[in-house]
């Protein structure tokens, strides 16, 4: 079967991976020659934290997350299972209690255990929650790795190709078209909206961290993810608008204050990059597979791209091909709803 | 019950921030049976079309929108935000917040009075987020406010009514001004307490949005607010030090036997 995938973000590439597995001829059409900053996935934190996300996400995200983690663990060498450490400043300690009550699979850690996990945070926090099963990676390593893997598998990449409205309404040249354009698919998917996110990349040789640290904050999930070469990704705001023109002073202040509160040595860190993008989301903030004729859309990853994309791609491939591909340990009866309609 | 010229029946005003998703927000608003929703402009708006999707969710609720100037720290900021709100929502209503202190998010009452005066002169109908201070309340009314919204406790703290005496005095002082407890409510029992004091309505956001089940919590608050209102209207009994039997003791046989 010939499959045409539009979009080369984490959703497009995940779909390509699962179709290739089923011996389909896959072409990926992309406006960029990325992976690069043109896709939302580029800006992600790369945390695979299904348990922490359960604090506010629907249970479905946890299920998809566990399944996707199996995929990532097998797939990428940069997968690091070092867990997540959740801490709070003294004023936000009641939030830590609530966070623990709403999530599972954590261990309470005291000052000395925090010091063992993250020596640089010794004496900075008296209590925290440790989620040992969680993992992280650097999306900017994973995306190119995935693309190269697909190229080696024979996937054709038609880069720097912008499709016109007419192209997108015309029948696909392949047997089936998979639309993975993220927020750009707003022209076809009424309910899709953008949720603005801002992140900052900083560099410091004074602080060493082994795993993502979440610093509880009353409004946004703040986290600091260590990356190679003394880099740290600080994210991420969630604002209900689609303006991607720039980060606001307030957001930058908030993100950098979080880093500084985590460790004062971050005060001397170098700011490498301030990123802004808008996450595609449906009103329930859950991903959807939507079929219209011989085009199938996978969209609405919200803040769960890496956590949800492989698992959703698998479901999409099964729906398009009409058979179950493989069984995985986390395959649940509770699959996301498939909505159908016509153009 | 009238807020400015608008007839209002629900005594629950609900905020639209911090929900896990817009879908859950819409369900929670429905469950709250609130007729008025507050919307924070500064963070969500951006410019022109950028926030349109979120606005359309809010408009879909059919509720009256009370835009707020949340997060504004100066008179000028608050006024600019109020003007943006009036353009976007086509309403003269504005919940006026001028924050004076970062840790408690306590209102800067001096800035508040000044901003209230300027906005009222400009045709706005101001809902000021204030403390329970009587003198400030007087000045807000002199500045043109026809409603007062004293805090229960600091925003998002969930501590309930910190100064019941102060809130009661305010009610006694302004029997004819609509009074709404705004901020600090954590539990339905806090909302009941506010309504039992004779307050006209309760405004809250975090207690519902950050609950494990926001929709269920919205229902819990709706019931509590209705319960507190009916209690106040029913004129509750006074406390007394001694027991007061609910059946006539004198008619019981042997009632006086100890003294026989």
TrEMBL record, chain A:
<keyword id="KW-0274">FAD</keyword>
<keyword id="KW-0560">Oxidoreductase</keyword>
<comment type="similarity">
    <text>Belongs to the DAMOX/DASOX family.</text>
</comment>
<keyword id="KW-0285">Flavoprotein</keyword>
<dbReference type="GO" id="GO:0046416">
    <property type="term" value="P:D-amino acid metabolic process"/>
</dbReference>
<protein>
    <recommendedName>
        <fullName>D-amino-acid oxidase</fullName>
        <ecNumber>1.4.3.3</ecNumber>
    </recommendedName>
</protein>
<feature type="domain" description="FAD dependent oxidoreductase">
    <location>
        <begin position="5"/>
        <end position="318"/>
    </location>
</feature>
<dbReference type="GO" id="GO:0003884">
    <property type="term" value="F:D-amino-acid oxidase activity"/>
</dbReference>
<dbReference type="InterPro" id="IPR036188">
    <property type="entry name" value="FAD/NAD-bd_sf"/>
</dbReference>
<dbReference type="InterPro" id="IPR006076">
    <property type="entry name" value="FAD-dep_OxRdtase"/>
</dbReference>
<dbReference type="GO" id="GO:0071949">
    <property type="term" value="F:FAD binding"/>
</dbReference>
<dbReference type="Pfam" id="PF01266">
    <property type="entry name" value="DAO"/>
</dbReference>
<dbReference type="InterPro" id="IPR023209">
    <property type="entry name" value="DAO"/>
</dbReference>
TrEMBL record, chain B:
<feature type="binding site">
    <location>
        <begin position="183"/>
        <end position="184"/>
    </location>
    <ligand>
        <name>1-deoxy-D-xylulose 5-phosphate</name>
    </ligand>
</feature>
<feature type="active site" description="Schiff-base intermediate with DXP">
    <location>
        <position position="95"/>
    </location>
</feature>
<keyword id="KW-0704">Schiff base</keyword>
<protein>
    <recommendedName>
        <fullName>Thiazole synthase</fullName>
        <ecNumber>2.8.1.10</ecNumber>
    </recommendedName>
</protein>
<dbReference type="GO" id="GO:0009229">
    <property type="term" value="P:thiamine diphosphate biosynthetic process"/>
</dbReference>
<dbReference type="Pfam" id="PF05690">
    <property type="entry name" value="ThiG"/>
</dbReference>
<comment type="subunit">
    <text>Homotetramer. Forms heterodimers with either ThiH or ThiS.</text>
</comment>
<comment type="function">
    <text>Catalyzes the rearrangement of 1-deoxy-D-xylulose 5-phosphate (DXP) to produce the thiazole phosphate moiety of thiamine. Sulfur is provided by the thiocarboxylate moiety of the carrier protein ThiS. In vitro, sulfur can be provided by H(2)S.</text>
</comment>
<dbReference type="InterPro" id="IPR008867">
    <property type="entry name" value="ThiG"/>
</dbReference>
<dbReference type="InterPro" id="IPR013785">
    <property type="entry name" value="Aldolase_TIM"/>
</dbReference>
<keyword id="KW-0808">Transferase</keyword>
<feature type="binding site">
    <location>
        <position position="156"/>
    </location>
    <ligand>
        <name>1-deoxy-D-xylulose 5-phosphate</name>
    </ligand>
</feature>
<feature type="domain" description="Thiazole synthase ThiG">
    <location>
        <begin position="3"/>
        <end position="248"/>
    </location>
</feature>
<comment type="pathway">
    <text>Cofactor biosynthesis; thiamine diphosphate biosynthesis.</text>
</comment>
<dbReference type="InterPro" id="IPR033983">
    <property type="entry name" value="Thiazole_synthase_ThiG"/>
</dbReference>
<feature type="binding site">
    <location>
        <begin position="205"/>
        <end position="206"/>
    </location>
    <ligand>
        <name>1-deoxy-D-xylulose 5-phosphate</name>
    </ligand>
</feature>
<dbReference type="GO" id="GO:0005737">
    <property type="term" value="C:cytoplasm"/>
</dbReference>
<dbReference type="GO" id="GO:1990107">
    <property type="term" value="F:thiazole synthase activity"/>
</dbReference>
<keyword id="KW-0963">Cytoplasm</keyword>
<keyword id="KW-0784">Thiamine biosynthesis</keyword>
<comment type="similarity">
    <text>Belongs to the ThiG family.</text>
</comment>
